[in-house]
């Protein structure tokens, strides 16, 4: 009984995370503003989505393998914290560096 309830919680938490990734992916693809071609932005959006999916897969596998009750909540909190840090700090920083390098050439 305990194992079944743990599996249900892990699956629900990870489906919510996967839904959030799908939401981000949808709005990074669908653009309601006038079309402006920005291949650097598209590249970083794709890279960020791949990073989120890989990080989600590792998180899900780790939670499912270890079967400890703290992992679904702690894994989700760490996942969100890392995703916000990478999406809000690391990706814009890397984009600025790449754009600066492209402008110098």
Could you explain the architecture of this structure?
This protein is mostly helical and about 100 residues long. It has three helices and no strands. Helix 1 runs antiparallel to helix 2 and helix 2 runs antiparallel to helix 3. The mean pLDDT is about 85. The chain has one domain. The N and C termini lie far apart (about 65 Å). Keywords: Membrane, Transmembrane, Transmembrane helix.
Task: Note the main attributes of this structure.
87% helix, membrane, transmembrane, mainly alpha, 3 helices, transmembrane helix, 0% strand, 105 residues
Summarize the structure.
The chain is mainly alpha-helical and 105 residues long. The protein has helices at 2-29, 39-66, 70-104.
């Amino acid at each position: 009984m305990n194992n079944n309830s743990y599996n249900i919680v892990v699956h629900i938490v990870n489906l919510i995370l996967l839904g959030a990734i799908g939401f981000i992916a949808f709005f990074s693809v669908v653009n309601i503003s006038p079309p402006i071609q920005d291949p650097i932005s598209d590249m970083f959006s794709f890279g960020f989505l791949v990073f989120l999916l890989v990080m989600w897969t590792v998180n899900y596998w780790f939670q499912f393998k270890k079967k400890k009750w703290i992992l679904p909540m702690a894994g989700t909190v760490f996942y969100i914290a890392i995703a916000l840090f990478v999406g809000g700090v690391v990706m814009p920083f890397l984009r600025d560096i790449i754009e600066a390098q492209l402008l110098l050439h």
